[in-house]
Amino acid sequence: MIPFKKVPSKDAEKYIQMLKDNGELIRGYRIKREGDYVLIPCTSGDELGDFESTVIRRMEQVGSYERIADFYVVKEREGWERIADEIIRKQNPRAIFLDRGVVGNERKRNVTRIYGTGPPEGIHRENGIRLLVNIEKAYFSPRLGGIRERLLSNVLEYKHEKVVDMYAGIGPISIILLKRGVKTFSFDINPFAVELLKHNFELNRVKGNYAVTDSNAISSCFTKADQIIMNNPTQPPDISFNIIGAFSSNTLIHYFLIDKKESSLNFNKVEIIERREVHGYSPSSSLFYYLLRKI
């Protein structure tokens, strides 16, 4: 409970400055609005109330967890209980979910709520866009936000009149491309993912072409694309390699793969323009991003 003063909104700026000058303003807490009044945390306050902390409390545990919207996801690995306990103590989460991995070709996470209330759903913000996320219905990971931004930079560097997002999911890649004026065709086999993608297009005020389909089955239709995004890293490499082999010469491919850290893939009739380790996946493997050019 924090002491505070309740002042009319029209006088709030004056009071805040006066409290700062007198050294009475309590920093590190968010000022609240209550109707026509403002509640200012200060040492001279004559009332007590709850205020949201603005101090970022660092997590000491090193482990695999993600913050998505207002909930957290903890990977089911050794020590996950300690990580969950620390999140509860330091981050004030709405809910925490235990992640047992991605299942099925629709790429849904097998999650169980272990703390809090509500579903694994919410509005997540990254790279200047908003995304309605539900990880039980469609895969999404905020850990890929940085590489999505890098991918956008690579797309814009080369010819990009037609780009295909083969495994678009809820649309985090498609939307950033569409916002930059790139004509993007988005596909996913998961109907729930495409429903979320459609909603996210509307949420971010972009228009694009999308469909529920098995992209692997129709990959021969993508021969006129300038660039193709293959963000399905758990797909067996031999399936991806067969698909890539049928693409036209000079097609650029943005390919994601989970592989051994020391591995160096040899692609047949493909030039490797860029290879980047995105993040660790297990003690011996990582997620990699490749920018490829079909020869």
> For the largest beta sheet, what order do the strands appear in spatially?
13-12-11-14-15-17-16
The second-level CATH architecture of the largest domain is 3-Layer(aba) Sandwich
List SSEs in N-to-C order.
EHEEEEEHEEEEHEHEHEEHEEE
Helix segment tally: 6
- At the first level of CATH, what is the class of the largest domain? Alpha Beta
Uncertain runs with pLDDT below 50, 5 residues or more?
Answer: none
**CATH fourth-tier homologous superfamily of the largest domain:** Vaccinia Virus protein VP39
List the domain count as a whole number. Answer: 3
pLDDT averaged over residues? 90
The share of residues in helices is 10-25%
Kindly name the structural category: alpha/beta
Task: Using the CA coordinates, give the radius of gyration.
Answer: 24 Å
- Quaternary state reads single chain
Report on the architecture of this protein.
It is a single chain. Strands 13-12-11-14-15-17-16 form a seven-stranded mixed β-sheet, sandwiched between helices. The chain has a four-stranded antiparallel β-sheet with strand order 2-3-1-4, with helices on one face. A four-stranded mixed β-sheet has the order 5-6-7-8, with helices on one face. 22% of the residues lie in helices and 35% in strands. It has three domains: 48 residues, Alpha-Beta Plaits (2-Layer Sandwich); 54 residues, no CATH class; 154 residues, 3-Layer(aba) Sandwich (Rossmann fold), CATH 3.40.50. The model has no long low-confidence stretch (mean pLDDT 90). The protein has 295 residues and is of the alpha/beta class. Helix 3 crosses helix 4. The protein is elongated.
